[in-house]
């Protein structure tokens, strides 16, 4: 497969997009995970296709919506399913709650690797900055089987999605339902540790939600690079002044100082032995001072600040997921079902991201055009199949 730069000379269609899905490999994963054991209708691949189609087609997806989609002649014709197959929404709900999650996890990892082939090796090597953040989604407390109770008066529970985004695709995602994981000090590091094992060259950027000194220590001792911000009240000791700031411009900020520091041990007057870098800069208009904190010493202050600025990319990605792919709504209320929906949402997002970038359009336009092209494809297939007589396909 050619790299993305070569592909950008041409547009990509929905037909080409769907052809990227590795049908033979999905069948192989289905056999390996035994996802279809004792299942006659809602096998793993059918669920895969149903969720993919409904995420693109429906702004407000639901189990009843998926029932209607699955039972439609159009869906069965598009994905070559037997016309006699029919399901009820409660059957979909039950299947999502027990279906083997490994099928969707391995499918996600496979498709992620395939889509990365749209980039040259040189482009892939440049993708070292991984943005990590979380977003919360709420649902009525009586619907969610597991979730975080927020406050004593609320009638809703929340679940947390923590995602690693490399600027091209979501490269890792986790779901958290226990209140013990409400703090970013626990969830963001879990995702970082897991992905760091896969990519030793990655640089992780995250916001001030992670403040535990033990996290910084563990990342540094494992030689995992990070960029974040430190709260102004955090205790530190200057080891060396790397640069006198003299209020020189670094982007829109003015540099006060670039320091090598040690950070304080909580509830003690002593400091950790590890050395970190703290870049202190001020916004001349608002007079707000920022402390950028990292364990990277071989980049300029401008490069470190630019890394942190790119953290905003994941906020844009979350907005796209919630506005265009129904991510602000919980379709399945079982924990297993929510995990399945998470993996399928990430797979769908990668399809949209490829279409968006190659065709040089925005998120909303990409989803809309994929939907339009998908329906045009269905019409073309129907006309070709039935020779102009729709009654041969639609009863």
Q: What topology emerges from the helices and strands here?
A:
Layout (H helix, E strand, L loop, with lengths): L3 H4 L6 H6 L3 H11 L10 H14 L5 H9 L1 H6 L10 H10 L2 H15 L5 H6 L2 E12 L7 E2 L6 E10 L4 E7 L7 H15 L4 E3 L7 H9 L3 E5 L6 E15 L2 E11 L12 E7 L6 E6 L6 H9 L2 H13 L10 H25 L3 H24 L9
Parallel strand pairs: 1-5, 5-6
Antiparallel strand pairs: 1-3, 2-3, 3-4, 6-10, 7-8, 8-9, 9-10
Please outline what is shown here.
By secondary structure, the protein is an alpha+beta fold. The chain is built from 15 helices and 10 strands. Helix 3 runs antiparallel to helix 8 (101-115) and helix 5 (63-71) crosses helix 7 (89-98).
Folded structure, characterized:
Strands 1, 2, 3, 4, 5, 6, 7, 8, 9 and 10 form a ten-stranded mixed β-sheet that branches. The protein has 395 residues and is α+β, with helices and mostly antiparallel strands. It has 15 helices and ten strands. The relative contact order is 0.14. The N terminus is likely disordered. Helix 8 packs parallel to helix 14.
């Amino acid at each position: 497969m050619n790299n993305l730069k070569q592909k950008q000379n041409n547009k990509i269609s929905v037909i080409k997009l769907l052809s990227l899905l590795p049908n033979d490999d999905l069948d192989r994963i289905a056999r390996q995970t035994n996802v279809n054991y004792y299942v006659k209708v809602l096998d793993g691949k059918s669920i895969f296709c149903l969720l993919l189609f409904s995420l693109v087609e429906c702004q407000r997806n639901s189990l009843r919506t998926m029932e209607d989609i699955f039972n439609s002649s159009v869906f069965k014709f598009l994905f070559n399913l037997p016309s006699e197959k029919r399901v009820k929404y409660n059957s979909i709900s039950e299947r999502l709650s027990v279906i083997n999650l490994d099928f969707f996890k391995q499918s996600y990892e496979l498709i992620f690797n395939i889509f990365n082939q749209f980039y040259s090796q040189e482009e892939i090597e440049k993708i070292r900055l991984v943005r990590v953040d979380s977003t919360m989604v709420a649902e009525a407390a009586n619907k969610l089987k597991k979730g975080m109770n927020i406050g004593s008066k609320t009638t809703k529970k929340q679940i947390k999605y923590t995602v690693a985004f490399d600027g091209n695709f979501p490269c890792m995602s986790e779901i958290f339902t226990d209140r013990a994981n409400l703090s970013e000090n626990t969830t963001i590091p879990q995702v970082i540790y897991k992905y760091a094992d896969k990519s030793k060259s990655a640089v992780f950027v995250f916001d001030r939600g992670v403040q535990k000194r033990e996290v910084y220590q563990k990342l540094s001792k494992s030689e995992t690079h990070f960029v974040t911000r430190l709260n102004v009240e955090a205790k530190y000791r200057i080891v060396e002044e790397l640069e006198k700031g003299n209020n020189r411009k670094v982007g829109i900020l003015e540099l006060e100082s670039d320091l090598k520091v040690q950070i304080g041990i909580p509830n003690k007057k002593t400091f950790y032995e590890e050395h970190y870098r703290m870049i202190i800069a001020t916004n001349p208009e608002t007079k707000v001072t920022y402390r950028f904190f990292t364990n990277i010493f071989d980049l300029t202050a401008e490069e470190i600040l630019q890394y942190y600025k790119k953290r905003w990319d994941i906020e844009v990605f979350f907005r796209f997921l919630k506005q265009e792919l129904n991510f602000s709504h919980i379709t399945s209320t079982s924990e297993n079902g929510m995990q399945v929906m998470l993996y399928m949402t990430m797979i769908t997002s990668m399809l949209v991201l490829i279409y968006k970038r190659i065709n040089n359009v925005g998120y909303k336009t990409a989803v809309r055009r994929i939907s339009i092209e998908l329906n045009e494809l269905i019409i073309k297939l129907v006309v070709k199949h039935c020779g102009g007589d729709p009654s041969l396909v639609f009863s």
